[in-house]
Amino acid sequence: MGNTNSGSNAPPSPSRWPTGGQDSTSKQIHIRTDQADGFYFTGEQLTGTVEIPLFYFQQYLNNKNNRKPTELILQQIISNDIIIELVGDATYSAEVDAAADSDGHSKHQVNVCRQRCFVILNQDNDKQSIQNNNQAETSFDQTTAQTLDTQTVPLPTTIKGIFQLQIPDALPPSLYNNRPPSVIYTLELNLSSSRYRFQIPIILSSKGCIPHPTIDIELNNNATNQHNIHLQASLIKTFYRPGEQIPVRLSYTNPQQRLIRSITVTLIQFYRIHNDQYRLQLDGKEWTFDISTMLPQREWLGETLLQLPYQPLQASFSNQSVGTTQRIECELDYRIFIELNEKKGDDIHLVLPSINVTYQK
């Protein structure tokens, strides 16, 4: 019957990188979301919190002409709008004149999302900090100490706030890749008092299509080579969910009893941005046939299970035009490739119709 080998991979996902550019944890801005892994569906509401050390508002505190009482300084900080923005950028490469660069390609970046919301700062910040009207001094960071008027009170060490952001529908799914193509989403906090941009990564996916009995049908395909070897493969249905196994049935007829070395089945995630393509093998199985000890078979049947990764796995995304200022096409689907390797002959390459990965029930 042949020996089988297997191998699997999971799509890359970002780590929750640090949110600030400072080397001291006491000076870092913290952005936290209600989903710890940063995975969200398009169309959902994203809720989070921010913590901003007072260090970043030193433009108010270091102003020697600022003689306002402490509580008025705090009110001024709170009254300034602080904005969280969901930013999505798609990057792809395209062929150009070979003289343009070393490999004849140019990189393009297209913005696909800019969705903003205001941070609602905690109005109790001043109440929590004003405890002793007679205190004369307070320290704002590790290097600067401010001496306030004896009539003022200490400021809080951290300004805290919450935000709620509606993720737009129909955004292309995330694709984290160290080279084009890629689709990267980040939550960004911008402060007028700082030149740094504070951000955390977000993973987005659609929920996918809703399965329906009339479209959740068997998928199959077949091919015949010049030596009359006929290869056939099929799946029992179209729709699958992350973490589900995909049974693949295979068979061939070999009337001339040609020598067959192996049959390989691979599950591929296929992402296209404009004309740039990305492929990732998620799982694979291989049958190897010992042609030195086995007689060629006229008929062969086999079945294997391919494993879809669990969340965060992006749902299938049909070909759509996206972009805020420039429109490009994006598409994400999942395909199963079968290859029959014949000794000294004509290999067969077979592709099944795309399966549909969905979170819908």
TrEMBL record:
Pfam families linked to this entry: Arrestin_C (PF02752)
GO cellular component, as recorded: cytoplasm
Every Arrestin C-terminal-like domain range: 226-318
Region (Disordered) residue spans: 1-27
InterPro entries: Arrestin-like_C, Arrestin_C-like, Arrestin_domain-protein, Ig_E-set
Gene Ontology terms describing biological process: protein transport
Matches recorded under Gene3D superfamilies: 2.60.40.640
Polar residues bias (residue ranges): 1-10
Protein name per UniProt: Arrestin C-terminal-like domain-containing protein
Annotated organism of origin: Adineta steineri
